[in-house]
Structures
1.
Amino acid sequence: MFRHILKISLFQRLSQQRSSSLTTSIPVVDVSALMNCSSSFEQHPSSSMIKASKLFSEALRQYGFVYIKNSHVTPLLVEETLLQSRWLFSQSEELKSKNLLTSNCHRGYYKFTSACVDDKIEAYSICRDIEQPYSLKQDYFQQLYDNDEKQLEKIKNQYNQINKWPPMNSEFKRIMLDYWLKCQKTSTDLLWSLAKYLNLEDPSIFIKQHSKHDNNMEIKYYPKLETKTKTTSEQMLRFPVHCDLTTLTLLCQDRESGLEIYNQNTNTWIAAPSTDDSILVNCGDLMEVWSNYYYPSTKHRVIQNTNNDKSDRISIVYFVFPNYETEIAPIQHQFASQTTTKNSDFEPFQVGDRMPFLL
Ligand SMILES: O=C(O)CCC(=O)C(=O)O
Ligand SMILES: [Fe+2]
């Protein structure tokens, strides 16, 4: 009980910090009717499911990014995860480097220099928390390297590295894994809904090809900048312009500004501030191709916050990937003729072919 009250008041305090004074034209969609739809969607879906699916799909189609509320990722869980993230980055260099440092692996702590000259961004990453993570990728690598046992052994050792957890904080691990799982569940429901909206012959095609949940979650810490670098627009970037490689990406942030989304209709950048009760979803390159260019992979970036650069910033990004062996090619669907027909000479590829190779 006490714990619950504490959590709520903490949540209220933090969400006051998180709510934004900025406005944005990116739509907010209530996805409550879609949650659990991948397991409960019967032959005759309810009208609220159909409505939510249409709103979500059309918003993604139009903007590339959508705020979703009432997903499995509750506002309280977002606050708790941000709080634990903040705890991690405030730990000593020794703890972060000694216990968590990673090289050539998608799990653990690392630093990188980004677009801005004196910018050092810290990051912490986890993947699906299983004992033999290579098992998720072995179908792909085995057909790639067939009989090359030596190479396969090397790859197996590399990919079997497990998540790195800070010692003596079991709460950290519990909350991170909870957040990870709720993003997994949310993304599965959203993938189902996107396929359903396209009226695909097999509406479970996307989720079948995501059965291994080989996803990656990355928390980034952007420290307060000591010097203002405002001279050119290039220098104001904190994370460069890019598209994600994913099918879907789920993103939340704890400060009001920084993230911007490119709108190709108006040729402008739109601010994507954090909100109290929603998280952002966008499509990446794999979904763009797979959906026959219907759901666009949209450019985005993080800029230096010039209104309030007294603060640091945390973002939590959950990258959703199909199984490595999945073959990607534009799919036929009811809207396919309206989309750019780029598929006549399209060479199908496997997801693993596009992923960074870690040896
Ligand atoms: O930090 C952010 O808000 C954006 C990061 C991002 O877009 C990415 O990691 O792909
Ligand atoms: Fe991104």
2.
Amino acid sequence: MATSSITRPRIVLCYPVESRHFARIEQQLSDIGIDAELIDAGQQHIADELLQADIYCGHAKVPVPWPEVVAQGRLQWIQSSAAGMDHCLTPEVVASDIVVTSASGVLADQVAEQTFALLFGLLRSLPVFFRAQQAHEFVRLPTRDLHRARVGIVGFGGNGRRLAEVLAPFRCELIATDLFPHDKPETVSQLLPAEALDGLLPTLDVLILTAPLTDQTCGMFDADRLARLPSHALLINVARGAIVQEKALVEALAAGRLAGAGVDVTEIEPLDPASPLWDLPNVIITPHVGGQAATRIDDMTEFFCTNLRRFFSRQPLRNLVDKTLGFPRPEDAAWRIPGGQ
Ligand SMILES: NC(=O)c1ccc[n+]([C@@H]2O[C@H](COP(=O)([O-])OP(=O)(O)OC[C@H]3O[C@@H](n4cnc5c(N)ncnc54)[C@H](O)[C@@H]3O)[C@@H](O)[C@H]2O)c1
Ligand SMILES: O=C(O)[C@H](O)CO
């Protein structure tokens, strides 16, 4: 882990903090006796600021000159304000000594609510009813329930676990798969290894994706895998678009081999206005807003404060990213500690 022996650390923030978040971080530093230079970079100055930063907390999707920043040798720690590390783990960062921590699970409440909205929107046929409403038509058709449904969750980290807590009271059966299938909570009937996925798919009514985008998950839902789902199944993707091959998804939905999809994320964002996904009647698209609810900045700031305290007292950081895996190992994940403290 990086050392905390910097004389006057320069901490650069690049996520949309308001003055109260800035003040909260200053207070945290003062509480632990650290005299630091705290800078709210904003996106315009991020490149210049990062060249002189010891610690960075923010999004990696901003134009960061990572090769120069890494070559400068000053940056010790990146606290990503995103859970997904796909924009942060550049080859230079991976090869460097820079410690990287993610926001895994930090946005779990927000993502669970988004998933809930997409799932119930599809189960209760809201796309059909919205269109009928616009046409002033009183259309009635059968709707579906969540209770008694079998719901698969792929990726059982911070988001998957919180989602299971939110859905369990509906008395559906929840079955999760994970690369590290440990610590099974009571919310799920089974926590299976990732390899069990293909056997699970034909038994599901709903499939929810909450895994990170990695070499292993990229494109993993191709036509063959989608075809394993029953034709009445619904697919919800609140993870990363590239986990699902969009062309295969469109074909499966259009042919009725899949009943519906709710996607907060797409292969390319923004989604191309010409994409056939827009016009499918059984699809709800939201523009990658799952983790964007207003409360996220408060939650992110609290999490950064926790890790700042741990960094300067040389305790292991929460959500330390295993750069080879592309996400934190379960033993370092914030979800293992209530409140992530
Ligand atoms: N829609 C949004 O706005 C939004 C918000 C936050 C996160 N995300 C996405 O959701 C992902 C998950 O977020 P999180 O906070 O739960 O992260 P996390 O790191 O806490 O959890 C990811 C889990 O997926 C598991 N996993 C990895 N590879 C797998 C595989 N091949 N099969 C099954 N499981 C696998 C990991 O072991 C881990 O338990 C992020 O990586 C990010 O891409 C999207
Ligand atoms: O990964 C995340 O936290 C969200 O998708 C925002 O990038």
